[in-house]
Amino acid sequence: MKHIRKTALALAAAMAISTSAFAQVYVDVPENHWAYQAIQQVTDKKWMGGNTQNQFKPNNTIDYFYFSQIAAKIAGYKDPLVDSSVSEEEKQFSQKAIDTYKNVLDSYTKSFSKWDKSSNEEIAYLLQKGVLKEADLPKFVVKQESGEESVLSLRREDMAVFVVRLMGKENEALKKTGSTGFSDDDSISSSAKPYVLYLKNAGVIQGGTNVKFNPKDKVTKAMLAKVLADALKPAGNTGTGTTAPSAEKTETSTPQKEVYLQGTVKKFYSNLYYILLQYGENKQSYYYIKKDAPIFINNKETNIETIKEGDTLLVELIEENGQQRISKITILESAKSNNTNTNTNNTNTNQQNTTSPSNTTTPSNSSQNSQGTTDLSSTKRIDGIVDFVSENGRIDIVVKYVDYKGDIKETVETYTVGQSTVITKDNKEVALSKIQKGDIIIAEVRGSTLYKAAIMEKQRKVEGTLAEKKQTNGTKIIVLENSKGEKTEYQITSETIITKKSISNAAWNDLRIGDKITLDLEYDKVIGLYAEGSFSEVKGVVQEILISTSQSKITIELSNGTTKTYPLLSGAIIKKDRGRESGTIYDVRLGQEVELALDSLEIEEMILKDQTKVRAVQGYIENINFLDDYLDLRTSDAYGSKRIQLDKDVEVFRGTRRLSRRDLEEGMLVSVTLRSYGSDQADTINILAEK
After folding, report:
1. Which residue intervals make up region (Disordered) (predicted)?
2. Which of 458, 479, 493, 528 is least buried, going by the fewest C-beta atoms within 10 A?
3. Does 521 share its domain with 583?
4. 276 located within any domain
5. Which residue has the higher pLDDT, 640 or 228?
């Protein structure tokens, strides 16, 4: 398979070379296209290209595998099957990368059926170069609880990270922290912000007042071409001085050892100057902090007590006596900044050495200076439950923290509420008197003063659409999706009262994907669940069938050309159109027309139509008309003779040899792949036998 793909790439490369002398002209990229120049540049450099119909497909989104193939070429990767100029030294470097990461990539190949193992050599090369990290690999393919896999599209913030690494500017980027200046800065992952900021300062991406970066948006081919062209200009052509990596130079060098590490605090022992950092997806390491290490937050120096579990840190590592130690810490993002998190099991490591779990304590006011002003660097977040509220502005909050043994402990902390304190409830500012014992509180405090708080009643309602239901180790869990597209899991217990419109004595099995759900919560416990379903009918052509012991799914193409996936209800009725006899999911065929009766979004009944729209057809050529662009094919099935539209861009093969449509003759046995189910447009034609 690898050899076949490389042969195809070699053919594409040869075609690109044959046209590059005249400058590649893409029929779908006119000269007034916003990325026209960039697309020409990446084509000339042979970083990216189009198809044999001279189409670049600028609006197509790209996945992480496709990006890896592009990035590897930029970083200097050469494949002997494609490039005969590869040197022995380059071969050795590539082989070392393959050997180093073989076990890692083999594990992903075995775990995911949709993992593109033909890209493993390029991915290994990028891992060896440091352009990719092992923590990036889980982003390539994801597997749902049902077992269904999805190849993910490259996201804008990840593109920024990878491009900065390609530029060789990662260490430089990580030295600069702070806001990116984009209006959606809060939506950018903290680990990606330094890279986005670097590209912005370098003029590769534009920003300003009220400009969004849209970090989670998918990357299109045109967008990537523009970023690569601007970021990797030769030295002297840009004011930023950024340069494309030299293939000759980078092939022989070894990956530069990282001086900076960015991660999240998992455990912190301030009295021992010992910290556990999590970085990437699955990596954790303990580090000692040098006692003279400076610590910064918001460009202001602070002390070690400011660090809390959950904080995102940028640390500078130095090696002393064969051991890595932290010589500098910058707090990039404090755990307090997640103002929407209502989890009361928040850890508060600052209490490890200052409070006793069994006593009510008043935090010291040592964070205030001699002038009585509050040190902003001492701000911390408190998540907890209101225990007591006095009329004179005192509030007691029950909080949980993790002690040095890793055990969860509980304590009561007392704070003073001043006249300038802002308290909100349901996004409206309220007075202190509106806070009740038992309310959930998410507060920001400085010293012993509470200056900002959001209140939620212990009993509240949550609305959304049922996106998924599952059982894990006997625990029933539903996933609700709100109007913003955010998904949250809720545990359904035996005490949860389930009701559903039009159903008496409703139970767990009566819930359907797509139901409108209202939850009655007491803290995070689901007390009541009300569901409302809907019934509808749809028709379409089967595009994909997923058979699973948990829940099978059918993907169909609707009449408007869109595709949608519907779960198959356990015990769903399946009937064959002819005679209406019963059928099973194993009777469903790709390309078959179906009628679905839906309970919300789950298939309650499916009728299999007799008509099947084929994607491929085989037969003998009876007649060819090149003037009107069609051929008549005599088949041995029920179709008899079928007319196939023969556009000029149709691909014709005899074995692995590419031919033109003019090589087709009457009497030939051919296999025709159509552009879509039910289409009469030929996409490719394979000659099976001469006349």
Report:
1. 235-255, 337-377
2. 493
3. no
4. yes
5. 228
